[in-house]
Every structure is written in structure tokens, then in C-alpha cells.
Amino acid sequence: MAPRKTKASDPASVGAALARPIVARVETAPAPVDAATRLEIFSRLAKANPEPRAELDYGNAYTLLVAVVLSAQATDRSVNLATAPLFAIADTPEAMLALGEERVRDFIRTIGLFNTKAKNVIALSRILVEEHGGAVPASLEHLRVLPGVGAKTASVVLNVAFGVPRIAVDTHIFRVSNRIPLVVAATTDKVQAGLEAIVPEQFLLNAHHWLILFGRYVCKARRPECPRCPIADLCRYPMKTA
């Protein structure tokens, strides 16, 4: 008998898709820039945006955690629209549990994979209440075991909520790192490890924000806006736009 095929809508399949790291062909051939160039790159990004911040709306470590979980395969804008009314009545794990999975699902119905995400939000809230006294743990190990939380989500929460210098690599940072290139690698995990090892220490805390915003608004996927790029003269990307 042939093995049963797993449907894309199965919770296990959806959960695996959310946790799966990005793997892609590295599109640049040049060697990564040297230490002096890295220092100049981050100096310019910092000068252009001295106080970068996450574009997800949140009020505390818990709502940040929920927002990042909901943002998987969704835009920050769509998450903010859904969480504004949700967080107005449930901004703690206790309040979220009292709300219940069905009502959470109704609030986030406009976000992709909302059924699985509603289950995860309730499940992680229960663990926070039962095992952490309702607080979000400032520990990578404890965060990663929460439903719907992978390495990227845990890194974002540690960085933004607790000031831990970690670089959560999404599609934007992955692209930027390989284009400049800062670190050339085929998976997000390898790019994260590489970046955290080579980003100048004084810029490490905010590097995640600078790189993601740079990738989102300047070094875009289909057509990077090289003419207005603040580091165009330092970047080795061979297919710059005119």
C-alpha cells in the first residue's frame, strides 16, 4: 500500500512549513566584504536610521511573541490590523486563554494559516501560564519549545524584548546578506550564525532591524533600488540597477 499523502491543510504539515528554514540558491559570486567595509556599511545604516524598531505593533513581551508567531507567511501590516482589536482585550496569556481558541481565530481570520496559528497562540499561552508564571522566558531554549515558535521567532523576541544581540534571518536579511555579500550561505541558520560572528559589536544589537528594513525598502527582491542605496559603492552585487 502506498503511503498516505499529507494534505497541505493538515496541522502537522502546516506547522512543519512554518518551522522549515529558508533554503535557496546563493545568487552572488563575489567574496564577502572585508571587516573595514562591514564597519562602514553598518555605520551608514545606523546614521540613516539611528533608532530602528520593529514594524509589528506590540505592547509587551507577550504581545510581541504572539505578533511574531502570527507574522509567519504574512505581512506585518496584516498582522497589525488583526492584533489591534485582539490585544485591546487580551494582552496577557491569561486573558488570551480566557478568550479561547474560537474567538482568537475570529480575530486573526484575515491572516494566512489562521487555524493553526490560533491553536498555537492558545497552546503557547497555556505553557506560559502553567510553566513560567505567565511571563515570556528570556531563554532561547524555553522559547523554541513553544508551539509555533522557531529559531527566527525566538531570536526576534530575545532581541526586541530583552535586548539580546541576535539576528533573526528572514527572506529580506537572507537576500541582503548574500547580495552585498556579508555572509554567503544557502540557509537562514548559516547566515544567522555568520552574521552574528562578523557584525561589528557596536552594531550587533540593532543589526536585525537595519538589515530587514534595508531589504524591505531599498534592496528589494525583484528590483533593488541601487541608485538611492546608501551603500551602493560598497556593495559587490554584480547586477545593480541603473
Q: What structural class do the secondary elements suggest?
A: mainly alpha
Mean pLDDT over all positions = 91
**What is the terminal separation in angstroms?**
57 Å
Q: What is the 3D shape?
A: elongated
Unreliably modeled segments = 1-9
SSE sequence, one letter per element: HHHHHHHHHHHH
Features of the shown structure:
single chain, 242 residues, mainly alpha, 12 helices, 0% strand, disordered N terminus
Descriptive notes:
There is one protein chain. With 242 residues, this protein is an all-alpha fold. Helices cover 54% and strands 0% of the residues. It is built from twelve helices and no strands. α3 (61-70) runs antiparallel to α9 and α5 (93-99) packs across α7. The longest helix has 19 residues, at 114-132. It is elongated. Mean pLDDT is 91; it is low at 1-9.
Describe the protein's topology:
Blueprint: H1 11-19, H2 35-48, H3 61-70, H4 76-89, H5 93-99, H6 101-107, H7 114-132, H8 140-144, H9 151-162, H10 171-179, H11 188-198, H12 204-217
Helix pairs in contact: 3-9, 5-7, 6-7, 10-12
In brief:
With 242 residues, this protein is mainly α. Helices cover 54% and strands 0% of the residues.
